[in-house]
């Protein structure tokens, strides 16, 4: 995964909206008494707690490639471990794997998924969710700005192909699992505050920009991006802003 650092506090600014897809994903996992549950890319650990609560008899393993996120999870009492998903393999006895809003950062994940599924025992569950909005204005505008003369060549950004379409995930999972459930949902998120879409993507999509640019240039980039985002996502008379967010889900039982 990318070495770009994460800001756990900034990420949790929109905790309610970011947590809802996890809950929708988890609702489709039918495991009753798993031995080991893995939160693959656990972030600050706030959702790992939900896995432990649902399956109190299971050994819950939390992994993340970000030292900042691992530290934040440990502050919550989660025994999180530093690990890169590219190098991870399910341990024996792993009955549930959940990876939420992680694999979009891993270009090789379509190649990793078959390896993980084949390593799981029969009857195990694998559940994933990834944003499907890399073609949305919020991300297109970042790429367009980064391609302008002042910024060109200074930032490496993902394109729309970083996340396959639902049908591609369905075919991939169907080749390695008995039961496959794939769907997509667009959440029409109602945000508040000044430049809320900019605030949202500052914790996620703008991470590579922050990593590539110095603090002054990063703030200059944000300042150029802000009015473009306001035009694409206008504020309503009551001060709120609608931010459509498409997400792709896949659940498989091996």
Describe this structure in words.
This protein has a seven-stranded mixed beta sheet. About 3% of the residues have low confidence. Helix 6 crosses helix 10. It has a domain of 175 residues: Rossmann fold (3-Layer(aba) Sandwich). By secondary structure, the chain is of the alpha/beta class. The two termini are 26 Å apart. The chain is 37% helix and 21% strand. It has ten helices and seven strands.
How do the helices and strands follow one another from N- to C-terminus?
Answer: HHEHEHEEHEHHEHHHE
Strand content: 15-25%
Question: How far from one another are the termini?
Answer: 26 Å
CATH class categorisation of the domain at 8-134 and 159-192 and 240-253: Alpha Beta
- What characterizes the major β-sheet? 7 strands, mixed
Under the CATH scheme, which architecture of the domain at 8-134 and 159-192 and 240-253 would be assigned? 3-Layer(aba) Sandwich
**Total strands:** 7
Summarize model confidence as the mean pLDDT. 91
């Amino acid at each position: 995964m990318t070495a770009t650092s994460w800001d756990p506090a900034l990420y949790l600014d929109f905790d309610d909206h970011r947590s809802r897809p996890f809950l929708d994903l988890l609702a489709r996992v039918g495991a009753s008494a798993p031995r080991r549950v893995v939160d693959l890319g656990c972030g600050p650990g706030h959702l790992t707690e939900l896995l432990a609560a649902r399956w109190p008899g299971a050994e819950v393993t939390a992994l993340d490639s970000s030292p900042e996120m691992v530290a934040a999870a440990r502050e919550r009492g989660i025994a999180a471990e530093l690990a890169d998903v590219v190098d991870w393999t399910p341990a024996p006895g792993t009955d549930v794997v959940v990876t939420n809003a992680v694999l979009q950062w891993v270009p090789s994940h379509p190649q990793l998924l078959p390896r993980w599924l084949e390593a799981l025992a029969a009857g195990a569950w694998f559940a994933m969710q990834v944003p499907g909005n890399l073609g949305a204005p919020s991300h297109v505008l970042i790429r367009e700005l980064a391609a302008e003369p002042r910024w060109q060549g200074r930032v490496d950004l993902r394109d729309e192909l970083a996340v396959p379409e639902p049908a591609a995930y369905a075919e991939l999972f169907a080749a390695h699992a008995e039961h496959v459930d794939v769907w997509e949902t667009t959440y029409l998120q109602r945000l508040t505050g000044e430049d809320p879409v900019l605030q949202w993507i500052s914790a996620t999509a703008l991470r590579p920009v922050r990593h590539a640019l110095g603090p002054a240039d990063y703030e200059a980039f944000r300042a150029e991006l802000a009015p473009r985002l306001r035009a694409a996502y206008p504020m309503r008379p009551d001060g709120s802003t609608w931010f459509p967010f498409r997400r792709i889900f896949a659940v498989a039982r091996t």
